[in-house]
Amino acid sequence: MVTLGIDIGSTTSKCALLKDGAEIIATSLYSGGIGTDSPGKALAEVFSSSGYTINEVACSTVTGYGRGSFKGADYQVSELSCHALGGRLIFPKLRTLIDVGGQDAKVILLSESGKMINFLMNDKCAAGTGRFLEVMANVLQLKVGDLEAVAAKSEKPAKISSTCTVFAESEVISQLAGSVPIPDIVAGICESVAARTAALAKRVGVVEQVCMSGGVALNGGVRKALEEALEVEIAFSPLSQLFGAIGAALFAYNKIQAQ
Amino acid sequence: MAVQELLNKFHDIAANPGKQMEAYLKAGKRVVLCAPVYTPEEIVHAMGAVPMGAWGADTELQLSKKYFPAFICSIMQSILELGIKGTYDGASAIIIPSLCDSLKCLGENWKYAVPDITFIPMVHPQNRAGEAGRAFTKAGYQRVIKTLEKLFATTYDDAALWGSIRIYNEHNAVMREVSALLAEHPEISACARSDIFKSAMFMLKEEHTALVKDLIEALKRSPAGETKVKVLISGIIADSHSLNSIFDDLGIQIVADDVAAQSRQYRTDAPEAETALDSLVLKFSGMGNCSLLFDVDKKRADLIVKTAQETGARGVIVILTKFCDPEEFDYVIIKSRCEEAGLPVTLVEVDRQMVNYEQARTIIETFKDMI
Fold this sequence. Notes:
The complex is a heterodimer. Chain A is an alpha/beta fold. Chain A has 2 domains: about 1-90 and about 240-260, Nucleotidyltransferase, domain 5 (2-Layer Sandwich); about 90-235, ATPase, nucleotide binding domain (Nucleotidyltransferase, domain 5), CATH 3.30.420.40. Chain A has helices at about 40-50, 80-90, 130-140, 145-150, 165-175, 180-205, 220-230, 245-259; strands spanning about 1-10, 10-20, 25-30, 55-65, 75, 95-100, 105-110, 115-120, 210-215, 235. Chain A has a 5-stranded mixed beta sheet with strand order 3-2-1-4-5. Chain A has a 5-stranded mixed beta sheet with strand order 8-7-6-9-10, with helices on both faces. In chain A, β7 (about 105-110) and β8 (about 115-120) form a beta hairpin. Chain B has helices at about 5-15, 15-25, 40-45, 75-85, 100-115, 130-150, 160-180, 190-200, 205-220, 240-250, 275-285, 300-310, 325-340, 360-370, and strands at about 30-35, 50-55, 95, 120, 230-235, 250-260, 315-320, 345-350. In chain B, α1 (about 5-15) packs across α8 (about 190-200) and α12 (about 300-310) crosses α13. The longest helix of chain B is centred in the middle third of the chain and has 25 residues, at about 160-180. At the A-B interface, α2 and β8 of A face α14 of B.
């Protein structure tokens, strides 16, 4: 049985096709989330790359910030529930999932059996999210994807505020004016995101195994800083950005099984 | 009258407070605005005026920003905004208690921003149960009476206050009854439940009591709808249609509340006493279980747990008004007591200027999945 998961985020659109609730057949990811044509493109790609057609899909679920605007899925589920399901499929012993996406951050606590027992979302603020990294990369004329490599060259990370993106941007400019090396500024930026995320995680309670999902999980600099802040190892999967879509496909599978 | 017909009435009144005020003014009645919270409405009622709730509205704040810093309660900012914009024109006065720091600022600013509507301060004591606290409350009520006497060129009559107290006590009783009955009727939406409570602010209580009694009778005749996921909500205000629609869209039923603008108003009756004014003083001194009323033991948290357990609520959703310090302080205790009792709890932050409720939707939806 093939099920489909669609995750329409604030900055990206992702799809996943799952076979029998266990095997990932195909995934797709496009830049551009809600309000763009990316959900349609991601959907087209997941079918073209897998060879399956929409008619072969037994059930589908849409999740993410743009879930309400997508018509045609059988179910609509919050991204936290889907990230939890997707994360647990990849890491069967997962207990704490830290999802840092384009515009928000969430921490989800799972029981030993995988049931969601607590969660927390960040305040309505860009600090500690992917948007924070984008703004800072822009100030430094870097690509978001380059931040990890640049941060790795740091010898003494600069202090950057984790409270507010606008204030932090001013601080970065001040650091540049003070001739602080760019790698130290970038490492400081990663630590800033990690500090904000760690505070959120500590409010929920951190139980190992811990993993990160969402686009920011791809940044090793943030992952490393978060590991240090939480004093735990953080598991990482190259599929971390797709946990929502995979979880949505798994949700659809579970629904069919429950019928 | 059928249930839906009555719900439509409640909605019409809750959605059109201006129409209500206009009708009372046209009928030759005076209107006195009653800002949050625990304003002695009975005094206004006894002196022949219509006490009308002034809890602000969901609106963009522009003019009030001249008087307030950015990070302050939007309920009270929106009251001033409506005052400056003339929404309350026609009202004779506004009584503003000072049970929180933000409300103190509202009263001070009102005098200058809306000079045409008389500001009547009501200073409650926080240590309200002892003799000194009761004397302080009584002095506060007497100041309100004196101002109203001057404003209306009338004389306070203790017998009239007894009459009003009876009306308010009866209203409290029907509100408690309807709240309990609504918990047995999942088909009544969260939006409709909110309308029932909100409409009480804009009507003479004897009129609202009659309407609620009709609803109680109609509900008793009506079969209960399909079961939904039951929750208890807590906070200062929860009247946003957008917020309540989320509960309805997701199949969640509010079986009880600890909301200042809803059930907290109706928990305490005025008891027998030597005079009606003393009875009103005893009512306030007997109040509790509220973030705005000093309580060293924070029994409010225990009441939330107890009410949730009694009503079968599977979780507690705290609807936190942004920048409300008293509620923020209490949340820590509520969360901890709920968790000790095995009751899931989550927090949704709202304010009067909010137009996008997507984050609230995600939190409530995930909470439903979790419980």
